[in-house]
Input
Amino acid sequence: MNNTKKKTLEQEAQEFRKLKVIEEPPMSARIYLAGQALSGLLAASRGGSIRLSEVKREAYEWADRMLED
Output
């Protein structure tokens, strides 16, 4: 018979707090805006074949334009 006890939610929370959390650097405004532009560009594409390099370039161009303001 299995004698292992289930952990309580409080025990799990305490163990979680002890874990080391890897923090990523904050996202730059340029990357954020490029992501927003990318979603618009992909939504506007008519489902045809698109070249990733071209769409990526255009997304960053839009981001750079938005940052100029």
Notes: The chain has a mean pLDDT of 88. DSSP finds three helices and no strands in the chain.
